[in-house]
Amino acid sequence: MNLVPSLILAVASLGLSGVITFSSIAPTDFSYRTMSLVAWAAAGIVGVTAMSFYFIADTKRRALGFYQIVGWKQAMYFVTMALLFVAVVWSAVEIGLWVGKL
Buried (b) or exposed (e) across 43-77, using 16+ Cβ within 10 A? Predict the structure, then answer.
């Protein structure tokens, strides 16, 4: 359950990046800058920081003794990490496009 905030932030960031990329918003618009910075902060700062709660809880469970890896939880972890990576890179590219148009 500690992965859910990171997963939600990754999907929200991807949604914002999708709106920016596939709409008529130009990199010189104020809304482009704002949305790309919010998308990057959501995935890059808040999303990755929220992953620390998962790592702390997982480390505590592993230290208690018997630890069993659950398949769907492992898959959810990898999906969350992949979505966060794509969201950070996509929003960083959009920020780069905005900076390039200054």
Answer: bbeebbebbeebeeeeeeeeeeeeeeeeeeeeeeb
